[in-house]
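Researcher: Go.
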Amino acid sequence: MRQTFRADQRVDADRLVARLEAVRRFLTLVDGHLPDTPLVPAHTLVERAGTRLALSRDHTVVALAGATGSGKSSLFNALARMELSPVGVRRPTTGVTHACVWGPLDGGNRLLDWIGVLPRHRFVRESVLDGDDECAMHGLILLDLPDFDSVQRSHRLEVDRLLGLVDLVIWVVDPQKYADRVIHDSYLREFHRHRDVTVVVLNQADRLAAPELPRVLADLRRLLDADGLEGVPLLSTTAVDPDGLTGLREALERTVAERQAALRRLAGDVDSVVAGLGDLVGEAEPPTRPDDATVAGLHRALAGAAGVPAVGDAVERAYRHRGAATTGWPLVRGWRRLRPDPLRRLHLPGTATSSAAASSAADPAAESLVAATSVPEPTSAQRAAVGLAIRAVADRAGAPLPGVWPGAVTNAARSRLGDLPDALDRTIAGTDLGMDHRPVWWRLVGGLQWLVTLAAVVGLGWLVLGYALRALGLPALDNPTVGDVPLPTLLLLGGLLAGLLVAAVTRPVVRWAARRARRRAERRLTAAVADVGEEYVLRPVRAVLGTYAEARTALRDAAHR
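Model: Structure:
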């Protein structure tokens, strides 16, 4: 039974390199986000494929693999037409890998070094007598592998290693054990993504009667189809009859001529790796960032933990304190100045801190120069609220993602949690609260207060001078009058009453302006705290989401043949 390879499925070398580069890009992107164990096959593929493509592309490495007694070594010798691999009745017969190279050995030595075939087990198929007959096989490296069912574990390990390196595998089965579960479950079924570089040979066909051969081949085809190897070439061979190898030799000659086996093998490896990685990224379309409601909740929690309400209250009280000290009755201003300024009690004086904060923003190394504030420490409830808000951000952002990605999003959201308190404190200290300059109307009212106070002082002095002159028996002053009221008395009483009236009228205005200053300061503080949340929580989350999206794109590129 003679079948041919599916030569229509050619693999473009440049496209294969692009797929491998996409796998490499995927590994770079997910480094640190995904566990290492599932990525081992991908790392192995990238390294192995790079080496294989860098080595000889003019050689095709074909392995004969099979169980004990399947006749691999006899088939190997028959194809080489030389006695190269030992054949005997002792089991296992083949303990080491033998290689036969058609053409000069120098061209395949580097490839055999990489595969790991010892020099003493390498043979060259060159002969002056039949050189022309073998020229179609030039470039073929045929390996006779140890028995995969050997009782010696080292033989099985060697087979498994070599099966991952060769370009094409010829599975050799015999009529007695072609349905053995070990070869089907442990090997053939695992090669379903490498159908283009898999051949199954029913060897020792001469042991079957002519009517039995088609039935055995049909049953074997049924088993191969069940293994996912539909369309894989199935040949019957016999090593004792040269005509029994014709179909296999033609298939090998065609494979050597096409120079496609190595590319097809690597393409199948990429398919297998991409399929294994598919579960790690899934098909979910990731959000670009958490929803606005969740972000707003984070900002509120950070504002509470940063002490924005406390600073806002201090701003309102400081505005009233400073406004009263500027617009109040000058006679009691000194007493008011003895009371501490609420903002300075929190180490938030305004201009000095703002200047330091500005310098630290320009030079990150100067952050330590910004004095810590005395804003009250967040309560346990506020700290818990921050933790819950960060978890909500991570949960909402990572919910659509598969596998371990939600955990990666959570880790990213919490990655700078320890730096948040200091960052919030620096932000509060460096935010311009709008308290650096006194309003013009304060100065106008203050000037008016000094004017009426001066009038009261002049009236008082004038009256004291009049009393002093009378007490000394000197002529009394002729005080002018306004109506029936002497001018000094009018100046004294008018100044005092005017000062109290201006203070009474100004006090509600100061309180209204203080509330407005508080709202302005809270808006600025909230915006600054939101920037901290953006940098310390949302940006790492978005970075993971972006990495996930790029990883999905890279995996799609790797999957596209």
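Model: Strands lie at 60-66, 98-102, 122-125, 140-144, 168-173, 198-202, 234-236, 481-482, 485-486.
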